[in-house]
TrEMBL record:
One Pfam family it belongs to: HEAT_EF3_N
Compositionally skewed regions (Basic residues) per UniProt: 1080-1089
A GO molecular-function descriptor: ATP binding
The keyword Repeat belongs to this UniProt entry's keyword annotation: yes
Localization terms from the record: Cytoplasm
Protein name (database record): P-loop containing nucleoside triphosphate hydrolase protein
PANTHER family in the cross-refs: ATP-BINDING CASSETTE SUB-FAMILY F MEMBER 1, ATP-BINDING TRANSPORT PROTEIN-RELATED
Species annotation: Lasiosphaeria ovina
Biased composition (Polar residues): 1046-1065
Family statement drawn from the similarity comment of this UniProt entry: Belongs to the ABC transporter superfamily. ABCF family. EF3 subfamily.
InterPro entries: AAA+_ATPase, ABC_transporter-like_ATP-bd, ABC_transporter-like_CS, ABCF, ARM-like, ARM-type_fold, Chromo/chromo_shadow_dom, Chromo_domain
Gene3D superfamilies: 2.40.50.990, Leucine-rich Repeat Variant, P-loop containing nucleotide triphosphate hydrolases
Record's keyword terms, sorted: ATP-binding, Cytoplasm, Hydrolase, Nucleotide-binding, Repeat
GO biological process: translation
Amino acid sequence: MPHPVSPPTQSSTMVVPIKAPDGTAPPPAATDVSALLATAFSAKTSSASIDACYALCDLLLASSVGFRGLQQYGVVAEAKKAAADKKSGLRREGAQNLLGALFERFPLRQPASEVALLLQDGGLVACVLDALADKGSVVREAAQYGLDALFANLSPEALVVGLLPALVEYLKKAGGKWQGVVGAHLMIQKMADKAKIRIGSTKEESEIGDILREIMGNKLASLIPVAEGGMLDMKSEVEKQSLKTMTSLATLLSNDDVAPRIPLLIETMHNPSSEGLQSAIHALSQTTFVAIVTSPALALLTPFLERSLNSPNTSQEVLRQTVVITENLTKLVHDPIEARAFLPKLQPGIKSVVNRASLPEVRELATRALAVMDKAMATDKENVIERISGADVAKVLDVEVKKYGGVGGDQDFYKLLRPYVCDMVAEDVNHRFVRRISDRIAPYLQPLMKSATAHEAVAAAVQNYYIKEDERKFGVPEKEDDGETEIVNADFSLAYGGMLLLSHTNLRLLKGHRYGLCGRNGAGKSTLMKSIASGKLEGFPSQDVLRTCYVEHNQGEDADISILDFVEKDPTIAKEGRERISSVLEEFGFTSGPEGKQSQRVGSLSGGWKMKLALARAMLQRADVLLLDEPTNHLDVANIKWLEEYLKSHTDITSLIVSHDSGFLDNVTTDIYHYEPNKKLGHYKGNLNAFVKVKPEARSYYTLSASTVQFKFPPPGILTGVKSATRAIIRMTNVSYSYPNAPKPSLADVSCQLTLSSRVAIIGPNGAGKSTLIKLLTGETIPTVGRVEKHPNLRIGYIKQHALEHVEMHLEKTPNQYLQWRYQHGDDREVHMKQTRVLSDADKEQMDKFVDLKDGNGARQIESLVGRQKYKKTFQYEVKWRSMLPKYNSQISRETLLDLGFAKLVQEFDDHEASREGLGYRELQPSVISKHFDDLGLDPDIANHNEIGSLSGGQKVKVVIAGAMWNNPHLLVLDEPTNFLDRDSLGGLAVAIRDFKGGVVMISHNEEFVGALASEQWHVNDGRVTHRGTAAISLDRFDDSKPASAVTSGLNTPNMSSVQSSAVNSGVEDNGITDDNMKFRARKKKKMTKKEVKEREVRRRLRQIDWLNSPKGTPKPLDTDDEAE
């Protein structure tokens, strides 16, 4: 086994050559080389053999012959001959010692020797791999040492271009020794492991890993079948090593969507079966693909999809899933060149599904997928950046080599070297590592060029050529800022919970700049900010060098102490002195003195004042860098404007800002840092608007409607007696509400009303009672004092603040099944879970009371309400009496039932009738439900076949919205919709609300969202609700509106006084009405003709027959004079 440390350059068997005038020794004598070879092959000890091998390497490298001597003196031929000598273990050991010494010395000293070692005359890799099967342990050890030395001394480009093809060729040949096959798989595994993204690696190691991962990832299509073949080998050792190799190769994908499914996919390859393939396809169909799909992911998934499409045993359901997966993957393939490399393998199978699938749905899906595939592979030369090949590089190289005198007499060797070098350069060019090109050319050409410096000139010329080509294709990189003070220049990696968020990226901050940090949800923006604030970010200056302050407006833990005491409590601020602290607080609007704001409790501050307090603390800490995480949350328009001016006026402070408020970012930022798909931070000069111009796909940061997510709400039904969109449909009168054991009420003496034209934003600080107000309006909570009235047929769609609360109970159902369960009995099951619908002990006692209507039938107990009809200006209900036949049912007016204490019973029946009326427009069939989900942005395929438990958070929210909108509500209530929807879905929701024909009430602190939709604002603070007048809607925030369009909604009321004590002016027709009950006039009856009476009787008779033929339990339809045809 060769020495770990190279031996001295002189030994008893070594010949010291005489130096030539140019510094290199003349070619050694053939007898000297033969003597060293003889010693290497016949030495009695391993040490003597190794010494002779190193001596021979040094002799050749020190002479002018160099690597040429390997062929001229027959060194390689002799080594191969000795390695194959079955009779002499010494010669086999000596041959492997020699090859190990060659692999260790020559690539580092003369890189051109790689061609002689890897390519010339078939190369030496196969010879070393075969030696791993030798019966002598010293031979096996020497062979393994040689492979490790070769692996360690090759550049990442040479590993992929030179060594990897040799390993694959060895694995593909028949009759290879199993130990050699294991060794080859192990070398491929080592390559893949070297390409892994690692936390804690050096910058150089990271760069090598990045290069190897990019280049090797594009070779996966040829590597996966080789590893898969080994997994099915009869030899258990080969099977085990191949399994490890496949696992390592799968890490080259860098696709977070596919990563969780990799173990199952590998298991399916390991144990192939139709059941395993179906399981893999099912798992992939449950995956939500959002990441860009590149060549490595396609290389892994394409064989599974191809097998599923072409197998005669594939069921129609699995075919459907396969087609959907193919379409979803194709939509995310952004490079047509990669699409054209893989999709043609799937097209025949998709076409076969189009022609032969038995289910129309599957054929339709396949037709759609085929169109998507054709579009993905379409050639658009303006946008497609073509890959270059080694032949393209050779043309450029030949021109430069000829310009600088050409190569010497080694024309035959240059013919082997030229494609090897050009292939490495092509890989660097295609993956944009153009600064490495000169090192792939100069060392290889040095021993061949006629002029001593020509190799460097050729390498520089080729590199410059491709740098200019890269700039032509991708643009000129921005130059460093001149004359500005750099305060941070950190190279780091960032991980959270075992997930790598950023890999060896750079963050450079200039003094006075304001940087917006943008990226998708979950990219790691807040994690980065918190890492900086805690001093854990590698390379970021410490607090004693650069004072960094994390600004947050959550001071809840010290809510009961005064503002001045709270600020002074911080030890870093206390040293400033109480007088200076008070002075700075006054600058931020906190007045001093016993009655001043500084004496107030921290918990009494609104969101805007808390932000001011946080900024005051930062100023007292003399911060150089402000870290602002969602600073506009809970801020009203005035406070946001104040914050913008504050940040812009302090040009000595650098800010790093995370915010979903695009208007705020646009007004404040000078630069944007964006989370790129390759786990790097991309820097873009300018504000958000300038960034969107450079990256149009990021436009969803900027507008509400430039979104790929489309929502379409169903139109609300007709409300009996409501002929105007400004007529009140729900009203609260003098309502107060107190939580149990609370010292004061959350809401006090609130009166308000809503109409079908209402667009109301409920605004106020945290804990002011906004959600409580919503719950009272929707019937979730019963008021302590006062009355909440609504139209008996009013349907409300309510999206709670914790929107996923109900669907989390049905994770095993598909969205389609959930909607069927929720409405299968003709009304909304979740309405019955409301506090106002659940019968308390007092209500149950009420149901047991006897009622005497003074009609001569005595006192009886009410069992249920079974019918309702109009009676004058109100309703009367058909009452079923307990233990009595239906023929004894009675008609009782609404007011009488309410006076008797049966409000919940009346409300329950009203809900049932309202829901039944809304569902009258709906058929609870899977196909209709699928269309409903499609209208609300959820793919029908996901709605029909994916369990709710497998959906993402955004998809679950769409299920919640679909459930709320199924019965065509008249009023939509949204509690903090901007908290649970991503930017794209928020845009889709905003457009749907804008176009909705019913009323909308929302709680939101997102000024952009509210300003675009709400024409009315109800401010809730300190238990009071105050109306702030009618505001102008900023339609210019929608991408499909005219520029600078800010209009007042025509659906709403004229401007009223700027402040009213109660929010009662949503609509004009009923303001100030104090009737005890909300009464809706029925339409005046028109006398019917004889013909109309006969037609009515026919309709009633047919309806009666239909009811008699309907399933048991179906409610009996009502006979009314104003029924529809």
